[in-house]
Amino acid sequence: MARIVAGQAGGRRIAVPRSGTRPTSERVREAVFSRLEHDGAVEGSRVLDLYAGSGALGLEAASRGAAEVVLVDVARPATQTCQANARSLGLPGVRAVTANVSAFLAGPAGRPADLVLLDPPYDTDETSLAGVLDALARQQDPWLGPRSVVVVERSSRSPEPDWPVGLERRLLRRYGQTTVWFAGPTGQAAPSAQARQT
């Protein structure tokens, strides 16, 4: 079992699929969302949680005031768990989609996302991740708006993602064996804490 850290559902437990899922630790989620809330990137936002697993990241965003959260995972047991977690927490505006992330991003975006959370399996290769980031940064029917924030969580043993044209790293944080990159569209103002990287 994992737990929502803060917000409307703070302290409530969520279920985790029996296999194939590695939920982001509460310590890392607390640090990431403290940074995002400091920058005003959560309240009222439209969120995509790609490789959602249990939905811990997207549900944390919903608990903290995100207006709309889409949880995407290729495994049906994962999206069923996501749906059950959203129901049990009573969080509105959350839906789960069973789809390969690349195939999902190849479809219509509709309104651009304000916040995109990516915590791919550690065995996801760098080429596959680069393809997903490239799809996010597309210019036609864009997934990202001019002030969107993209958060990528990886093992600290993994190299920095290969950022596509139109998307660049803004901030780097390391939490033990986990590294988190915050990125945004090229030309976007960098977060005020960029100089305080750890």
TrEMBL record:
The keyword Methyltransferase applies. Keywords: Methyltransferase, Transferase. Pfam families: Cons_hypoth95. One of its GO terms (molecular function) is 16S rRNA (guanine(966)-N(2))-methyltransferase activity. SUPFAM superfamilies: S-adenosyl-L-methionine-dependent methyltransferases. CDD domains: AdoMet_MTases. InterPro entries: DNA_methylase_N6_adenine_CS, RNA_MeTrfase_RsmD, SAM-dependent_MTases_sf. Its EC number is 2.1.1.171. NCBIfam families: 16S rRNA (guanine(966)-N(2))-methyltransferase RsmD. This is 16S rRNA (Guanine(966)-N(2))-methyltransferase RsmD. It comes from Actinomyces lilanjuaniae. The lineage of its organism: Bacteria, Bacillati, Actinomycetota, Actinomycetes, Actinomycetales. The gene is rsmD.
